Amino acid sequence: MKKYNLLISDPLSEDGMRPLQEASHIHMVMNLNWNTEQLLENIGSFDALIVRSQTQVTRELIERASNLKIIGRAGVGVDNIAIEAATEQGIIVVNAPNGNTNSAAEHTMAMLMALARKIPQAYLALKQQKWDRKSYIGVELKDKTLGIIGLGRIGAEVAYRARGQRMNVIAYDPFLTKEKAEKMGIEYGSLDDVLRIADFITVHTPLLKETRHLLNKEAFHKMKPGVQIINCARGGIIDEDALYDAIVSKKVAGAALDVLEEEPFLNHKLLKLNEVIATPHLGASTIEAQENVAIDVSQDILRFFNGDPVRNP
Ligand code: NAD
Ligand code: MLT
Question: Which EC numbers characterise this protein's activity in its record (predicted)?
Fold first, then answer.
């Protein structure tokens, strides 16, 4: 029986990978330490590749991947994969769009609450032996308006949870209708409505040409003074220089960022601002989400090598 070589180049749940490990026609290689050069050197011997968001599957890598037939993305965003190059070479790209929705929505709510109550800043002060109750006065979420830009899987889950916090919710999404918004108990608005009305704005779009720098200088100008921003979607949706200026000028009171344009981010100027809280791209980092996406992507790889149709080519 022909054996297919599968490379896994980002950390994935072992439990989720078990079906692949047990498949007699798959030879699985887990190599999390290869740098770009090593990846380029070795990719030619693999039939399949599974990545999360860390490995950059560039055109150059794809062009070297002479045996590659399928790329599995254990997660939603495929912005780290040169899709056009893959298509040109007849390589199928599959993602796992549902498995981390809940975790990403929960992380967004955690960031929203931590931002509103300045929890990370207060915790840092305590760790430095400072008992300071005056500097960390927050705001309530109840009766505030949350603006959601992008009401897909995660945006919708965030909307339900925000209603549970007794927030008003207004959302903008080109595919949202008034009827759907009404059914969800939220308000339907244009992008400008969201920018103008919201006390907190959270973005949940994919990173596309159309959404790059969707929140830019002009957009910040339209917002309410004191607005707070959350990004647990993709770096690049927010123009980071514009956000920095808006915080320094006090137009924006705070921001919670799980993602930035270049990752890993350590010395970014936004991280130096007290008003900014951040996590290192942890939206999908739960046991459950990682197991879900690993199972979904494993099943697709197995289906593909068994000659069965994959779910989302
Ligand atoms: P989704 O495809 O279900 O939803 C995206 C929504 O954005 C769609 O409803 C679409 O109509 C809307 N949209 C597209 N262009 C728009 C525009 N110009 N303005 C407003 N809305 C627009 O995706 P999802 O699963 O909800 O994921 C949302 C984002 O979260 C993606 O960027 C994804 O990569 C990211 N994500 C991040 C993490 C993390 O670890 N931080 C985890 C999971 C997903
Ligand atoms: C995703 O797009 O699924 C997320 O960014 C999560 C991840 O890749 O870890």
Answer: 1.1.1.95
Largest CA distance in the chain: 70
**Cross-strand bridge partners of residue 145:** 168
3-state secondary structure of 257: strand
Q: Is 234 a catalytic residue?
A: yes
Residue 269 carries which side chain, given as an amino acid letter? K
Q: Cβ distance 69 to 48 under 8 Å? A: yes
Output phi, psi for 256, to 5 deg.
-120, 120
Amino acid in position 199: D
What count of other Cβ atoms lies within 10 Å of the Cβ of residue 81?
A: 23
pLDDT, tens digit (0-9, with 9 covering 90-100), for 166-194: 999 999 999 999 999 999 999 999 999 99
Ligand 1 pocket test, candidate residues 102, 173, 296, most atoms within 8 A of CB: 173
By C-alpha distance, which of 233, 229, 257 is closest to 105? 233
- Judged by DSSP in three states, 45 sits in helix
Whole-Å CA distances, 107 to 140, 240, 313:
18, 21, 28
Task: Confirm if 231 and 257 have CB atoms less than 8 A apart.
Answer: yes
Dihedral sign for Cα atoms in the order 132, 120, 198, 237: positive
pLDDT tens digit string along 100-156?
A: 999 999 999 999 999 999 999 999 999 999 999 999 999 999 999 999 999 999 999
Contact indicator for 250, 274 with CB cutoff of 8 Å: no
The finding on whether 174 has its CB within 6 A of some atom of ligand 1 is yes
Active-site position among 63, 261, 263, 291: 263
Q: Which atom of ligand 1 is nearest to the CA of 210?
A: 18
For residues 250 and 103, the answer to whether their CB atoms sit within 8 Å is no
**Which value does ipTM take for this structure?**
0.99
Q: Do residues 170 and 177 lie in contact, with contact meaning Cβ atoms separated by under 8 Å?
A: no
